[in-house]
Amino acid sequence: MKDRFARRKYIIMGLILTSALILIVRLFLVQIVDKTYRVSAANNALRPVTQYPARGLIYDRNGELMVYNQAAYDLLVIPVQTSVFDTARFNEILGITMDDFRERMRVAKAYSHRTPSVFLKMISSETYAVLQEELYRFPGFYVQARTLRKYTRPVAAHLLGYVGEVDNRLIARDRYYRSGDYIGVSGIEKSYEEKLRGSKGVNIFLVDVHNNIKGSYADGRYDTIAVPGTNLWSTIDLGLQEYGEKLMLNKTGSIVAIEPATGEILSLVTSPSYDPSLLVGRVRSSNFARLQADTVKPLFDRALMASYPPGSTFKIMNGLIGLQEEVISPTSLFSCNYGYHAGSITVGCHAHRSPLNLPDAVAQSCNSWFCNAFRNILENSEYESVQEAYDRWREYLVAFGFGNKLGIDLPNELPGFVPARSYYDRYYGKDRWKALTVISLAIGQGEIGATPLQMANMTAVIANRGSFYIPHVIKKTGEDGTPSPLYTQRYTTGILPENFEPVIEGMEGAVNGGVGSTARGARLDSIIICGKTGTAQNPHGKDHSIFVAFAPKEDPQIAIAVYVENAGFGSTFAAPIASLMIEKYLTGRIKRKYLEDYVLRVVITPDAEEE
Amino acid sequence: MQKRNNILARLDWVTVILWLLMMVMGWLNIYAAVYNEQHTSIFDMSQRYGKQLVFIIAALVLAVLIMVTDNKLYFFFAWFFYGIMIFLLLLVLVLGKEIHGARAWFEIGSFSIQPSEFAKFATGLALASFLNSRRQSSGLDVMAPATAIILVPMILIALQPDMGSVITYFAFFIVLYREGMSIYVFISAILAAALFLLTLMLGNVPVAAGLIVLAIVVMLVTSGWSLTLRALGILLPAAGVAFLAGHYLLGMKTSGIIVIAVLLAGIGYAWYIYRLKLKMPAIIYAFLLGGIIYLFSVDYAFNNILKPHQQTRINIMLGIEEDPFGEGYNLNQSLISIGSGGFSGKGYLNGTQTKFKFVPEQSTDFIFCTVGEEWGFIGSVVVTGLFVWLLLRLLLLAERQRTTFVRTYGYGVVALFLVHFFINIGMTIGVMPVIGIPLPFFSYGGSSLWGFTILLFVFLRLDAGRTEYLG
To answer: Which residue has the higher pLDDT, B404 or B162?
Structure first.
């Protein structure tokens, strides 16, 4: 075959020769003509000293400091730059043994002979002062300043979270982090890491063989300045948080308090908790292991992660949905004969007047009333089937934030659980179930699960008569910061404001009513509290005590959900705790010392492990 | 037995010796690059130099295996290889292990393998097979499908994304050039690249303004005053309208306004050109509009499609940006190590710079640093010379083929080696941006060594059988 383009081989040969020529000319320039590289190489014991910015501070809603920084020092070593030195004196300053020294050197060499690695982490300022004087005697070693977190009060550990070293997986993924850097691992420290961390700077120094800095490399052309982290203003009321943790001492459970008008979280208590300063500095890993092994699980954030059946507090939801769907009215009367009886099904109830209307049924927590109401919701003739009515019912719950993560600005939030129609279809067969099959949902028992945060949010919705803002813990980032747009978006629930009034009347009655009211222990003389008790069945031990409330009735300032595990009825402990929290927040001091003492004295050991 | 001897006799031993020499030199330099006081034995299997020895032995076995296969295999199964590689490139996007943000590797036990290294071989074969089946032509009927054969693996690799490997596939266009692709395609590509670089260096609006001025000047030269003034008379009101509408009504950026202005002017100008049948102004206008749309789209692509570190690398290469402790630092360290080698180098294992962990990938992509530092200018020239020898030798072998198939495949090998050689060494001395591709036979790593060995030996096998009929 004729090769029409045979002459093009010369062009390609030329391309090869030109390429090589370009490289050789450039090599000639770099290696022979330009002498500066040889000088650079001679001085090229470069020491990059990272300038770690101070992490942002965190303030509470009243501008009180919660988290700040203290100085600490890491001792770094570059093994090739070390030479014979007085190890005895060295170890004496640092307070380590010779074996310890050898082991640390071995680890450093194993990492690299020529790049710096941390020899000893977080030396105290005192040791640093001594060491700094004599550092010239220890070539290859140098000190890098770091900051450690410090807390003004030993509270809000889960909320604030802690800072730890980055792991290698993240280093491989994120170019910002280098080995030994710190990063927020949980809580606000994690979710606002990018704001808090600021941005690292680096100074590159030329260092001679005697470990003396000869000056900055390339006149500081490659240096960068560290930018300090942004300060955060939290929505938390530090005093209220501390008080809540005090009340929950020796009990297991959680308190979530929200300002209904904004969705700002006032306190986020989980108990048992721990002192956040336990997870700072050199003691962090040993303390962490200890906390992790603790049987009461102090690292578990119950406020966001524990999913409990909401119990009778959930009757509020069924009341609201019933009203909105117009299958009940505030004046609907249902009788109660020590419970609800339909065919073979019985849902028991306590002794009370019968029949009741809606507000009284809420106030006295009548099971029978709400079983009837729930059955009306599901057997609504507006819908083709129970299943369709159930879907509608579930939509309302989802609109209230149940069954999904609410989207709080903290990591690890769990979604809780509201069974979908398909869940029951799988269990009983497609459309083979009726209102009575799922009747326990009427009183908040059964398959449903909600976190304390979701229950507090539900209470905030009621306080707002139908709308809410996503609960959040950070108000603004930076002095002139604005709240994230995520948290200024108002969400509505599809229930008309007027439908809230009879339910709120019932909640008012539960706390402030007469005979048969379930939460009279939560009553406060000066302020009208509206609340609802609940008891979450606990298959593993004694039932959990629940109380949700908001106050004052008009223009509510606080909505709160309290869970106390294994404490029995909601009225027993949860209601007094909620009441005290409300009193503390709204009046600033506690008048009812007897009630406070009653709560503080009680020790409830979790009996979840029994059975 | 007769046939086997025949092959050995026909095998191009010059190439084989160059190949062996390069592998051994690479191995010695890897040893120097990762030299470690605690593992001084070059045979230490826990270290990269030990592993590289295993890779080299495997490459020798691979070479022997290829030599004993039937050369018709590669001719008849070219498309089969290509299909398998495309399948593997798809599979790696799903099952691949993510390393440095790219899904480019299969992980089988403790062993990783990179299909894009082997896809080069399959692409070369498929391209050769296709061109062999057509009459030599620079027409689209040949060049369009040929381009498609190259683009399919390129796109799949771009999805990983491994831009370094993608760039090496441009080598195949050298093959297309040899087989007739118009030189104007390459000139346009070079112009486009120049426009791209100018845009990055000067910003899009100045370059757009420059293009408009250039168009006016060309217009003046070719068409005279009168036509130019009339064209300007249309352009200026169009620009005014576009500015008012774009800026005040739509809130557009300057770039958008310029495009709209030129478009509007074109619409206003079109009837005029049409009426007077003016060819030159039409061409000038088409180039102006094409150029402006192109430069704004590359600007957009650069800022929105390339990853930040790739942008940084190009910016550093162009001197727009100096990265304190990242990409620019690597290049600087690389230059210091090569530059400090001087004329005769510091001597084997006496290099101080390449042993800093500061230069990353010093045993893989930056292996030439060790050569430059320890063997100096002499060593660098020797290595460059070896590559030139290999490339010219292979080109010679390709030219002596009787079939388009083997010649084209051979050119594929030459072109791939050339691109790897030039980019890899170029990036260590600041001639090219830092693109992470290996130096053939020198860099540490099994996949690349075997990939290059397969490329080379399939060609040597085909060359050894050049007197036999393939078909």
So the answer is: B404
* pLDDT tens column, B333-342: 788 888 888 8
Looking at beta carbons, which residues of chain A come within 8 Å of B382? Answer: none
The CA distance from A301 to A291, in Å, is 13
- The residue behind tokens 């050991």 is A605
Run of H or E residues at A281: none
Cβ(A405)–Cβ(A416) under 8 Å? no
The domain limits of chain A are 8-34, 48-234, 238-274+301-601
Q: Please state, as a whole number, how many other Cβ atoms lie within 10 Å of the Cβ of residue B471.
A: 8
Contact criterion met (CB < 8 Å) for A46 and B358: yes
Contact A16 B404 (CB under 8 A): no
Q: Cis bond leading into A539, ω under 30°? A: no
Q: What is the CATH number of domain A48-234?
A: 3.90.1310.10
Does B387 contact A113 at a Cβ distance shorter than 8 Å? no
Q: Euclidean distance between the first and final Cα of chain A, in Å?
A: 91
Asked if B391 is an interface residue toward chain A (Cβ–Cβ < 8 A), one would say yes
Looking at the DSSP assignment, which residues form a beta bridge with residue B99?
Answer: B102
Domain boundaries, chain B: 2-181+332-464, 203-306
* pLDDT score of A472: 95
Q: Between residues 206 and 265 of chain B, which touch chain A (CB distance below 8 Å)?
A: none
Architecture of the domain spanning A238-274+301-601: 3-Layer(aba) Sandwich (3.40)
Residue B288 near residue B235 (C-beta atoms within 8 A): no
- pTM beyond 0.90, yes or no: no
DSSP assignment of A198-249 equals -B-EEEEEEE-TTS-EEEEGGGGTT-B--BPPPPEEES--HHHHHHHHHHTT
CA distance linking residue A302 with residue A57, whole number of Å: 26
Mean pLDDT within B28-49: 78
First and final C-alpha spacing in chain B: 23
> Shortest CB distance from B180 goes to which of A4, A41, A44?
A4
pLDDT of residue B359: 61
| Interatomic CA distance for residues A369 and B195, integer angstroms | 78
How close A224 gets to chain B, by Cα (Å)?
7
Residue type at B318 in one-letter notation? L
Q: Mean pLDDT over residues A123-143, rounded?
A: 84
Mean pLDDT lowest among A118-132, A351-365, B299-313, B333-347: B299-313
Surface of B (89-148) touching A: CB under 8 A:
100-101, 135-136
Q: What is the pLDDT of residues B346-375, one digit of tens each?
A: 888 777 665 544 566 678 888 999 999 889
Closest by CA position to B7, among listed B396, B461, B398: B461
User: Does A7 lie at the interface with B, CB-CB under 8 angstroms?
Assistant: no
Express each pLDDT in B193-207 by its tens digit. 888 878 777 777 788
Contact A224 B325 (CB under 8 A): yes
A426, A420 contact by CB (below 8 A): no
Read off the pLDDT of residues A569-589 as tens digits, 9 standing for 90 and up.
767 789 999 999 999 999 988
- Complete DSSP assignment for A549-566: EEESSSS--EEEEEEETT
Window 296-335 of B: residues touching A by CB (8 A cutoff) are: 309, 322, 324-326, 328-329, 335
Residues 6+ away with beta carbon under 8 Å from B440: B22, B417, B420, B421, B448, B452
pLDDT tens-place string over residues B104-117:
888 887 777 888 88
Q: Which residue of B has its CA nearest to A115?
A: B357
Q: How far apart are CA B40 and CA B67, in angstroms?
A: 36
Q: Compute the distance between CA of residue A482 and CA of residue A555 in angstroms, rounded to an integer.
A: 24
Number of other residues whose CB lies within 10 A of the CB of residue B76: 12
Side chain identity at B260, as an amino acid letter?
I
Query: Two tokens at A419?
Result: 């069974």
Which ipTM did the prediction report?
0.85
Q: Which amino acid is at A528?
A: I
